Lipoprotein
Amino acid sequence: MSPRILLAAIVISLGTGCATGLNSAQKAELDHYEARGLAVVEKNPGTGAALGLLPGGGSFYGREYGFGVVNLLFWPLSILWDPISGYDASRAINYQATKAHVDKLKEKEIQALDDQLGAKQIDLAQYTLEKRKIEKKFDAL
């Protein structure tokens, strides 16, 4: 392989080989939900990292199919980044699933509270207090 092709392959692989993962606020939010038992685990990050040792495995596991093909083509060099890609992609999938789950739970509880207010089972002061409790329960930080 010519040096020019090798250099192009390295630049392409470094630019496309890694999944983006979560930013620091999202990581903290997911950690918070995990600690409170609210996290949804669709993908195991450890499995994503382990599969990253196989050609494109971490990226394919993390639903990053384009990256998976690139990592497949650059295997065994992709072993340097694909375990990280698999781990990060798994965490990102879990974050999105957790956010949707938590939002749905929060919406359900607020709707029940709205129904109680509408049926005059509670007054506005009780409604406000209970709504704050719900928001505190489901808000990450």
Notes: DSSP finds seven helices and no strands in the chain. The CA atoms of residues 15 and 128 lie 49 Å apart.
